Amino acid sequence: MVREFTIGPATREAYGAALVELGRKNPNVVVLDADLSKSTYTGKFGKEFPDRFFNIGIAEANMVGIAGGLAHSGKIPFCSSFACFLVDKGYDQLRIAVAYPQENVKVVSSHGGISIGEDGPSQQSIEDVALMVTLPGFVVCVPSDAAQARDLVLRAADHKGPVYIRTGRPKVATIYTGGEFPFGKSRQLEDGKDVTIVANGLMVAEALKAHDALKDDGITARVIDSYCVKPLDEEAIISAARDTGALVVAEEHSKIGGLGAMVAQCLAAHFPAPVEQVAVNDTYAESGSPAQLLEKYGLTWKHVVAAARKVLGRKVRPLGNEPPPAGKASESEHHPFEV
Amino acid sequence: MPLTYDELKAKAVRVRRDSLEMITAAASGHPGGSLSEVEILVALWFRVMRHDPKNPQWAARDRFILSKGHGCPALYSCMAHTGYFDPSTLNTLRKLGSPLQGHPDRRFIPALEASTGSLGNGLSIGIGIAHALKLDKTDARVYVVVGDGECQEGQIWEAAMYAGAHGLDNITLIVDYNKKQLDDMVKHVLPMDPLGGKFAAMNWDVMEIDGHNMQLVVEALEESKKVKGRPTCIVAHTITGKGVSFMENDPKWHGVAPTKEECAKALAELGV
Fold it and tell me: Percentage helix, strand, coil, to 5, in chain B?
């Protein structure tokens, strides 16, 4: 039986509330939006602190540049729009006005991933994490629920340097009641010995459900919420590879360049282990309800279970040991480490 | 005592000589646009701007952004001769380990207000600074220099529309209107006229001047400080490669360094 979650606020709602909290605490916090403040929830800050809120208009490049100038002058700008517009249209400015001079700008997007639903692929961002992790010096986070989003936003304000946080449109499962989520770390939510599921964003809840389903079949899975994609918690990833020997990485993003790529890169360098990805398979999605899209494009707990079974079959097993559970695939393959 | 126009003109010769020598020593760089902007930069750094090289982070300083970052040799020369670093550093332009990067880089020169080089970015950054100065209730100004070719970037117009609509009167934008870009004459690539009219339509106070007449440049910059409720755009009509007969008005010199012989010839023309 897979667990059920209480559905809590969207991570973008948590962002909006956290901004107001920050605004009351710190007069240097300023907020910029590009005419989507009702959707990104920055409008709540704007209402309470109109002097510190800049609605730039539909001009993301200009917005990011202005944020760079504000940060250069000692302000702590949070700048928001939909992920695809903010990152893609503001990318040269994120590079020149923020990352290159290491300005203290907080870039917080909403509408990450395909779960925005009906508006379709022009508004669905499946590339933003990949684009942001390549910018030197940026911290890149993808929170899984409201409590975590709040903590990461407050933390971003205290952090000196550029931060990217990707929030989402739909209301999401409540994973946490609170807690601390330092940059460069991850959170282990379940332990197991057969396989590790690394996830972030709304895939964390799916990973936990997959854990339950696998358990019913006698497979124990470690589940790691890798909310910080960069810097990646390499220690947790390497330990997971050492302890469980196989990993699944689940994220609401293209399989190219996101968390899965970061995990694979880490393991290739430090502790090679088989990795299967649950992610958008190098394609644009379409219009539909969020649930329909997540199903069609392979982002549910069932897909995580299937990936776990597959990766178990790819495990490198010590000589003489029994094959791992559901290890049919490996029996038909000749692995170089076996005689 | 502010420098006289004659003294400023002498500085301009110095900056032109430095720029050519630096680019020649580096064997790469952008002489055309470095020479066209000289009077604008000299007027700002040696007379108009409030700044203190001994305290580059002074909160009340005026801010300067060279958005057309490829014109940095003239900027480095101005900063060296106003006391930000030793003029002997100038001959390290573009060399490994030098603070004088090929385009302005704040990591190496913290006194710079922005790292530039990707065209179109400077005005937006300037707007952010201008907003912050107003929030902090300081009367410091922001001076941004852009190229005319640079104004082909869409971001310039996002920023121009915004600054005009918000009446950011602590911004002075100077367009170094030298009519040349890398490939060809601006009018042959993408004509920008009426350039001043575009800014005027976006609620800017616009002045058009001869950008090589030191007195007019200084007066226009001083005048811009008095404008209330609107940002100022000074369209400074200039000549690419100004001061060197064989470089003037020739787009070839946008991004090509002179040989040592060509440099010697140019320096002889400029005098001392």
Answer: 45, 10, 45
A120 and A49 assigned to the same domain: yes
Nearest-CA distance from B251 to chain A in Å? 26
- Both A153 and A195 in one domain: the answer is no
Residue A325 resides in a domain: no
Tell me the whole-structure pTM to 2 decimals.
0.94
pLDDT over 90 (residue A328): no
Give A320's pLDDT tier (boundaries 50, 70, 90). Answer: low
| Whole-angstrom distance, CA of residue B180 vs CA of residue A93 | 25
Q: How far is CA B160 from the centre of its chain?
A: 17
- The CATH code for residues B5-270 is 3.40.50.970
Tally A–B CB contacts below 8 A: 101
Terminal C-alpha separation, chain A: 39
C-beta atoms of B127 and A62 within 8 A: yes
Search chain A and give the residue with CA nearest B63: A73
Q: What is the 3-state secondary structure (H, E, C) of B203-240?
A: CCEEEEEECCCHHHHHHHHHHHCCCCCCCEEEEEECCC
Q: What is the ipTM of this complex?
A: 0.95
Q: What is the pLDDT confidence band of residue A326, given thresholds at 50, 70 and 90?
A: low
Question: pLDDT per residue over A10-33, tens digit each?
Answer: 999 999 999 999 999 999 999 999
Q: Tell whether the model's pLDDT for residue A333 goes beyond 50.
A: no
| Integer Cα distance of A70 and A104 in angstroms | 9
